[in-house]
Amino acid sequence: MEYKVYLFDFDYTLADSSRGIVTCFRHVLDRHGYTSPTDDDIKRTIGKTLEESFSLLTGVTDVACLAEFRREYVKEADVYMTSNTVLFPEVEGVLRRLKAGGAQLGIISTKFRYRIRELLVAKGLDDVFDLIVGGEDVSAAKPSPEGVLIALDRLHVRKEDVLYVGDSVVDAETAQAADVSFGGVTHGVTTYAELSAYPHRLIMASLEELV
């Protein structure tokens, strides 16, 4: 399978940051008395914005309250996230093989760009990606196609030359909205059946299938 550009979601696609995410959510939720959400409940929100996640987990819809939850989460993440995030085993090899083959690589994520770069630097992969579009770079989060379209514009490529790879229904919807090919990976909590319900080029158990 050959595309000129491979764009990746981050959480549960390239990296398992669920331990860090659960820790940060748990600290904020417990602090405010929301003890009923389980770890699995938290994991099911990975890929959504922090405000969306907190609203789903707490039932809170007040904008100011959700903004405070978000602020507290970011402070927790500064402490716990990078040290509790690991790349999936095949990721480094796959990325370097794609890069060696002449492909351009990018990340489109709701996660902050600086947080992603922090991990990539720690893992020695900061030289692999041509761009990273984080949550602070867009006005509308996925499944809005804005992040993907920003990448296409910056990399000067056509939609047909792009494969967007992600682990969630939100990623599948993002690719569909951007009118680019989608490759699903079942690293996360979304099943093969859930991903394959959307237009796709392939659904993978491992990113090795890209190469």
TrEMBL record:
Keyword Hydrolase carried by entry: yes
Top-rank EC class of the record's enzyme: hydrolase
Gene3D superfamilies: HAD superfamily/HAD-like, Putative phosphatase, domain 2
The EC number(s) this enzyme carries: 3.1.3.18
GO cellular component terms attached to this protein's record: cytosol
Keyword tags: Hydrolase
An example Gene Ontology molecular-function term: phosphoglycolate phosphatase activity
A Pfam short name: HAD_2
Gene Ontology BP terms: DNA repair
InterPro entries: HAD-like_hydrolase_sf (IPR050155), HAD-like_sf (IPR036412), HAD-SF_hydro_IA (IPR006439), HAD_2 (IPR041492), HAD_sf (IPR023214), PGP-like_dom2 (IPR023198)
Annotated pathway: Organic acid metabolism; glycolate biosynthesis; glycolate from 2-phosphoglycolate: step 1/1
Family stated for the protein in its record: Belongs to the HAD-like hydrolase superfamily. CbbY/CbbZ/Gph/YieH family.
PANTHER family, A to Z: PHOSPHOGLYCOLATE PHOSPHATASE (PTHR43434:SF1)
Official protein name in the record: phosphoglycolate phosphatase
Organism the protein comes from: Caecibacteroides pullorum
